[in-house]
């Protein structure tokens, strides 16, 4: 089955694309996009992979669903297109970076700049129906993104996994803890962050410390 995804990932995932569940998933997604407004736009569904080649992955951040409001989702978890108002979780991410690394609050919420440095911004579910959070869950995307996480874990070494919130922590069950560095905390959403589960986790400096210690280039957050 032909999937329009960056070549290094196509090579890693080609056996996944041939599995029956994936064909069923694609049929579902095509029907949803034909009959409903869905996000992100079709050409952005695999953007997390297109902006971060398999060979370049050194940090993985796991999200849950794409944003389901107009013009927000761009295929990278927590990221929005240029010029779009920052959603609450992204605001809290930038606040933590500001506190942790003294990096000024950015003007754009487009995280392609992270992806190009080797940060895989992976949502567990890659599509969603407009204004209906979770509407494309349990259709096969989770099986696919589990496979992605397992391939990164099995075939690479010294990757930093940032698991924020209970959902991401469950997705992290496939990671080999002996080969990789796993950092966990509460989710950056206001519900979790305002209860003290997010702010002060220092994940961004800790990730860079580990990258430096393993002779990798740090991320300019």
TrEMBL record:
GO terms for molecular function: uracil DNA N-glycosylase activity. It catalyses: Hydrolyzes single-stranded DNA or mismatched double-stranded DNA and polynucleotides, releasing free uracil. The keyword Heme does not apply. SUPFAM superfamilies: Uracil-DNA glycosylase-like. The active site is at 65 (proton acceptor). CDD domains: UDG-F1-like. InterPro entries: UDG_fam1, Ura-DNA_Glyclase_AS, Uracil-DNA_glycosylase-like, Uracil-DNA_glycosylase-like_sf. Its EC number is 3.2.2.27. One of its GO terms (biological process) is base-excision repair, AP site formation via deaminated base removal. It comes from the Bacteria. One of its GO terms (cellular component) is cytoplasm. It holds the Pfam family UDG. Keywords: Cytoplasm, DNA damage, DNA repair, Glycosidase, Hydrolase. PROSITE patterns: U_DNA_GLYCOSYLASE. It is found in: Cytoplasm. The keyword Lipoprotein does not apply. It is an enzyme of class 3 (hydrolase). Residues 49-211 form the Uracil-DNA glycosylase-like domain. Excises uracil residues from the DNA which can arise as a result of misincorporation of dUMP residues by DNA polymerase or due to deamination of cytosine. NCBIfam families: PRK05254.1-1 (NF003588), PRK05254.1-2 (NF003589), PRK05254.1-4 (NF003591), PRK05254.1-5 (NF003592), ung (TIGR00628). PANTHER family: URACIL-DNA GLYCOSYLASE. Belongs to the uracil-DNA glycosylase (UDG) superfamily. UNG family. This is Uracil-DNA glycosylase. The gene is ung.
């Amino acid at each position: 089955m032909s999937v329009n995804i960056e070549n290094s990932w196509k090579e890693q995932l080609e056996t996944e694309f041939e599995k029956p569940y994936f064909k069923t998933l694609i049929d579902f997604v095509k029907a949803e996009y034909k009959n409903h407004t869905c996000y992100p736009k079709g050409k952005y569904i695999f953007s997390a992979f297109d902006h971060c080649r398999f060979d370049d992955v050194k940090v993985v951040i796991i999200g849950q669903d794409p944003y389901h409001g107009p013009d927000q989702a761009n295929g990278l978890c927590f990221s929005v297109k240029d010029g779009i108002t920052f959603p609450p979780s992204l605001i809290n991410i930038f606040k933590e970076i500001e506190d942790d690394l003294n990096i000024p609050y950015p003007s754009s919420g487009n995280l392609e700049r992270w992806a190009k440095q080797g940060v895989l911004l992976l949502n567990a579910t890659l599509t969603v129906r407009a204004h209906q959070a979770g509407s494309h869950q349990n259709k096969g995307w989770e099986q696919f993104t589990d496979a992605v996480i397992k391939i990164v874990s099995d075939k690479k070494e010294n990757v930093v996994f940032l698991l924020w919130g209970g959902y991401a922590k469950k997705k992290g069950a496939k990671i080999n803890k002996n080969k990789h560095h796993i950092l966990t905390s509460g989710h950056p959403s206001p519900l979790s962050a305002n209860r003290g589960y997010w702010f002060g986790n220092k994940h961004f400096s800790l990730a860079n410390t580990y990258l430096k210690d393993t002779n990798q280039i740090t991320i300019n957050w």
